[in-house]
Amino acid sequence: MSRYILKRILLMIPIVVIVTMLIYCILNTNTDSILYSIAGLDAKAEVIEQLKVEMGFDKPVVVRYFKYLYNVVVHQDFGTSYIGNRPVFDDIMGKLPVSIRVSFNAMLVSTLIGIPVGIISAVKQYSILDRVCLVVSTFISAVPAFWLSMM
Q1: DSSP 8-class letter at 1
Q2: What are the phi and psi torsion angles at 80 (to 5°)?
Q3: How far apart are the C-alpha atoms of 141 and 19, rounded to whole Å?
Q4: Which residues pair with 87 in a beta bridge?
Q5: What is the pTM of this model?
Q6: Which of 7, 43, 114, 115 is the S-S candidate for 39 at Cβ 3.0 to 4.6 Å?
Q7: How far, in whole angstroms, is CA 69 from its chain's centroid?
Q8: Which of 26-30, 48-52, 65-69 has the lowest mean pLDDT?
Q9: Cα 9 to Cα 56: distance, rounded to the nearest angstrom
């Protein structure tokens, strides 16, 4: 069992690297919009170029990504927010208690609903009730979580 858990943990490393790389590349495809949001829409081209050099946007995305990854892993530095000019780590930690509470409540509700629905579906297999439970659970799992939580 411990070997299985260790294998799963080791498999998480490349997944995290790939996901962070994809997100980093998507967020850094249009650096001009980031620079104009920092400097202002009426900023001159010289100011944008200077800001681009200061923030490292003049380097390729791959170089910036590995520098970011190095800072995260070695120094636990997630960088500075472009919008609030605060450390990103502080923003994450400020919102972490609420995220944990919402996640716990979601798991609790899904467990309290999922186990009885699963038992009903197993006991009343191939009945109308089983089919209704299947359709409702499929619909709920297909609906985006953010929309369902607002409803």
Answers
A1: -
A2: -115, 140
A3: 22
A4: 80
A5: 0.64
A6: 43
A7: 16
A8: 26-30
A9: 33
For residue 1, give both structure tokens. 């069992």
Q: pLDDT digit string (tens) for 70-121?
A: 999 899 999 888 777 899 999 999 999 999 998 898 889 889 989 999 999 9
HEC string for 68-125: HHHHHHHHCCCCECCCCCCEHHHHHHHHHHHHHHHHHHHHHHHHHHHHHHHHHHHHCC
In this structure, the number of other CB atoms found within 10 A of the CB of residue 35 comes to 21
Contact 120, 129 (CB under 8 A): yes
- Written as six digits, the tokens of 2 are 């411990």
Rounded distance between C-alpha atoms, residue 49 and residue 30, angstroms = 14
Cβ proximity of 57 and 35 under 8 Å? yes
- Residue closest to 32 by CA, chosen among 41, 21, 22, 20: 41
